[in-house]
Amino acid sequence: MKVILVSFLFIGVAWGNLSCSCGWRNAGRIVGGKDAGKNEYPWIVAFQTVQSTWTFCGGAIVTPWHVVTAAHCFEDVEAKDLVVVVGAHDVNSKYEYASSRHRAEKIIIHPQYNSKTTVNDIAIVVTSTEIKYNKFVGPACMPSGVLGNEMVGQMLKAIGWGRYDPDRPYADRIKKLKEVDLEIISTQECKKHWSVNAAQICTYTPRKDTCKGDSGGPLTWLDPETNRFTLAAVVSYGPKECGNVAVPGVNTNVSAYLKWIDYHISQTKSQAKTCHK
């Protein structure tokens, strides 16, 4: 996560026009001006393996059994080896009261995902045990329709445990959750740098970006109608220099895959429901 912006805003509890409670933000303690507040964003997930506590990707809780993330995170990882960490802030701490670890039951990768072009870079991880919701753990709101050109100029909040400095690949292992605000740019502008389509959202803010290790992590939009965070995208790819070059990042537009997500939720856990307007 390259260069961090921190907000002290507390999001209220009004959610009368939502199907269920989602996307709330806790008034977490700010540490050093670079970290997100502790348990500030209840939907964030860290993916690790049974062999290592190194966080290699992120994701967003959308039901008590489902996490939406990026397909490219699991090209070399099987469900039997995957650990889903929820409620975490410092992923290396053994003393976080809100944190819990779950094993994965299944990894569902979009059938049209292309590892060469990185299109349809979306996946769903199904947990083998229920993720218990509380103040510190809960789902992001899902979009109620397709997010398109009307979102250009809006800010998305990216959170993750990815690399802070792309020039320090080994020393720069992030322990505490970071956050950064990124602006949505038009597909036309993004095509100056990448081959993208309407199922992708490009973001660019000078000297700020996601980075290696943030892949699959959520980019959420604060909906002014609900005052809650909606899952707009998951981190897909970007320049290897991260925020050090004037090149946008590319993210998977979650709203383009709502039917696919809902179908696989119903097929794996019929009782599970996402939250939305």
TrEMBL record:
GO terms for molecular function: serine-type endopeptidase activity. Residues 30-266 form the Peptidase S1 domain. Keywords: Disulfide bond, Hemolymph clotting, Hydrolase, Protease, Serine protease, Signal, Sushi. It catalyses: Selective cleavage of 103-Arg-|-Ser-104 and 124-Ile-|-Ile-125 bonds in Limulus clotting factor B to form activated factor B. Cleavage of -Pro-Arg-|-Xaa- bonds in synthetic substrates. PANTHER family: TRYPTASE-RELATED (PTHR24256). Belongs to the peptidase S1 family. CLIP subfamily. This is limulus clotting factor C. The lineage of its organism: Eukaryota, Metazoa, Ecdysozoa, Arthropoda, Hexapoda.
